[in-house]
TrEMBL record:
InterPro entries named among the record's database cross-references: VanZ-like
Pfam families assigned: VanZ
Keyword annotations of the record: Membrane, Transmembrane, Transmembrane helix
Domain of life, per lineage: Bacteria
Coiled-coil parts of chain: none
Alphabetical list of NCBIfam families matching this protein: vanZ_1
Protein name: VanZ-like domain-containing protein
Species, as recorded: Shewanella colwelliana
Claim: Ribosomal protein is one of the keywords in the record: no
Annotated TM spans: 46-63, 75-95, 101-121
Domain annotation VanZ-like: ranges: 32-121
Length: 131
């Protein structure tokens, strides 16, 4: 099952790469058109896309954690957060894009929410394996 989610992580990352490339080059696509018709669609998109990536990477790394002081976040969440930070800051170098702190906030909320979902799945999985 871990391999399946690792593979889905790669595929979803490629999809996100295409979305980001389209935005960076000023291209439009079906997803951008759909988002324009949803209130706060851009923010919902950030939350759901990077949240989903967090979940897939966390499952694909079998809930691997890293120790940061007294805190042990999922490796997948940390990896996605670093990528998100780099991607959002890189927007300053593209004339079609602008850095938006609220996009970064939506990304962070998605990462946190889907990390929590990962935690619930991990707990459920542990419970099933101990019964």
């Amino acid at each position: 099952m871990v391999r399946l989610f690792a593979g889905l992580s790669v595929l979803f990352s490629l999809f996100l790469g295409w979305i980001i490339f389209s935005a960076d080059t000023g291209q439009s696509n079906l997803f951008f058109e759909l988002i324009r018709h949803v209130p706060y669609g851009d923010k919902w998109g950030h939350l759901l896309l990077f949240g989903t990536l967090t979940l897939l990477v966390t499952l694909g790394t079998n809930f691997k954690r890293v120790r940061l002081g007294g805190f042990s976040p999922y490796l997948g969440a940390i990896a996605v957060a670093v990528i998100v930070l780099i991607e959002e800051c890189s927007q300053a170098y593209f004339p079609q894009r602008t850095f938006d702190l609220f996009d970064l906030l939506a990304d962070a909320i998605g990462i946190l929410m889907f990390s929590w979902l990962s935690y619930l799945i991990e707990i459920k999985r542990q419970k099933i394996h101990t019964e």
